[in-house]
Amino acid sequence: MNWRAPILPALLLLASCERQAQAPRVQAETAGAVFVWPGVHPSPQIKAKTVYLLDGEVRREGAARLHPLRMGTPRLPGRTLWLVVRAERLDWTDATRAAILANLAKWRAAGNDVAGLQVDFDASTRGLGNYAAFLKDLRARLPADLRLSITGLMDWSAHGDPQALAQLAGTVDEVVVQTYQARSTIPGYEAYFAKMQGFPIPFRVALVEGGEWQAPPGLESQPQFKGYVVFLLKPQNR
């Protein structure tokens, strides 16, 4: 009896179903916005018009000061730039804020189209109230024509205090919601985005280059959704 004839089509069908079930990989070349760490050199094929550049860190250890990470001042004509500061603490001093404002001024003086400042801080869902107060003070110190962006966790949509989110909505111009950890997309992201209906702040979705991503139903039609930001990786890690 010939078993191969029915088995082969079944195996091919199974393999086809597995390929369809796997989410597409994120391609940076087609992204409208990218996030660039110091030391990462985007390929010429990346034509993103909006670029988030990590400029410095406020580290947990020692005094709360800005640690520069980028040598010199970028010059990227034809792109819209966000100056990003990665923060591990919120007890910023006047000197910390002054250093950041000085860098913003240098970037603009170099002829860049600077959209504003992004704070990359992993605020816990329960700590949103304190974070909102910090951001309100920071917003008041920024030039009026610069915007304020923050990164956010997917959990905010599910368990964030509505009152704290409302405070953020009156202070920040956008939240960039992170969907990855290290170099991989966080599993189960669909469940979080199912609860984004009514999210009170304009938001982008941050994807990791090469990670799996399939837009959940209804995400891209939400009124506050403003697009994607692709986190670029070094070539050996892609």
Automatic annotation (TrEMBL):
PROSITE patterns, alphabetized: PROKAR_LIPOPROTEIN
Cleaved signal peptide residues: 1-21
Q: Does the keyword Chaperone apply?
A: no
Record-linked InterPro entries = DUF3142 (IPR021488), GH (IPR017853)
In which domain of life is the source organism classified? Bacteria
Keywords, sorted A to Z: Signal
Q: What is this protein called?
A: DUF3142 domain-containing protein
Organism, per UniProt? Novosphingobium taihuense
